[in-house]
Amino acid sequence: MFSRVAKPSVSLCSHFVKNFSTSNVANRNVAVMGASGGIGQPLSLLLKNSPLITQLSLYDIVHTPGVAADLSHIESKSKVTGFVGPDQLEASLKGAEVVVIPAGVPRKPGMTRDDLFNTNASIVANLTAACAKVCPKAMVCIISNPVNSTVPIAVEMYKKINADPSRIFGVTTLDIVRANTFIAELKGLDPATVNCPVIGGHAGITIIPLISQCTPSVQFPEDQLKALTERIQDAGTEVVKAKAGAGSATLSMAYAGARFAFSMIRAMNGEKVVECAYVRSQITDATYFSTPLVLGPNGISQNLGMGSLSPYESKLVENAIAELKGSIKKGEDFVANM
Questions:
Q1: Any idea which residues carry the catalytic annotation?
Q2: Fewest beta carbons less than 10 Å away: which of 2, 16, 234, 337?
Q3: Does the annotation list 217 as a binding residue?
């Protein structure tokens, strides 16, 4: 699928090599909401290292001045500023062109992404309300779980003040990163050369890897395909269990979030870039759905849709729709009842 327009960037190393060999790159202002957290700190480190970014604004309710001071010692050109507490929220967003939101509480053993809803829903609603007011044209990249519900929350917050919600993206990139890695492990490939689109949503059975569309082309016996699909769907829980109560997938999520942010900036700079993301969609009966998107200077240039699915993948989509609809409604109802 990706080869129809452009392949997504598959590693941050390739981003850095390309970035450092490019002169006259556009200046970009990026804000990270939740920059002191388990995802926010490594994400901010990766963003600080990119020459694509000239201004990095870090916001959280605690510790951001220290995080900003620490990062400011790194020998890259971006200027880092820390903002702390609700009184400084709007200031942290002034001039932002890309806003990345990893803010929220992490999953613990036994918790689902949906268990995070009540806490993280309020956080995302407050942050995106500020985005709609201060930087309504910024690209907003939402990592905070449950993404299947927090993205609809963000859109509804924008609609409340008649702001344009078309630049709001749910970051599902970690599902693609995991699919590429797990496929490469099974086939003895370099993960950086594997591209497997993952569609649907960002939780459990809504995560739908399109292994039939993977490049390079790969095939698996039915039992191995099922096991691989389920591992991709449950990979977040795999990390939560391995950390034994100490956190969730923070480092790999930071990597994936940085990859998506870099792709967004490159698209804003005029490159043709394809990434999967969870957005408002008319592709299925679910009003939000992740598919490969051609990104451009104004957000989504083209939605590439699902492409040709195998019978197994078609069944996965069919099974995911009801859960997606429920998660979307939960997010929309939250804003309606605020």
A1: 202
A2: 337
A3: no
Give backbone dihedrals phi and psi of 143, rounded to 5 degrees, phi first: -100, -30
Does 145 carry a binding-site annotation? Answer: yes
Question: How far is the C-alpha of 129 from the C-alpha of 156, rounded, in Å?
Answer: 9
Q: In this structure, what token pair is assigned to residue 336? A: 């309606």
- For 90, the token pair is 């709007």
Distance CA 72, CA 70 (A): 6
Contact call for residues 11 and 46 (beta carbons, < 8 A): no
36 is in an annotated binding site: yes
Which residues touch 206 (CB under 8 Å, ≥6 apart)?
A: 148, 200, 320, 323, 324, 327
What average pLDDT does range 211-227 have in this prediction? 98
Radius of gyration from C-alpha coordinates of the chain: 19
The pTM assigned to this predicted structure is: 0.92
Residue-level pLDDT at 238: 95
Which domains are present in the chain? 10-172 (3.40.50.720), 173-251+273-327 (3.90.110.10)
Q: Is 188 annotated as a binding residue?
A: no
Q: What are phi and psi for residue 208, nearest 5 degrees? A: -125, 95
Distance CA 183, CA 117 (A): 31
What distances in angstroms separate CA 131 from CA 45, 180, 222, one per listed residue? 22, 33, 46
Asked whether residue 52 carries a pLDDT value surpassing 50, the answer given is yes
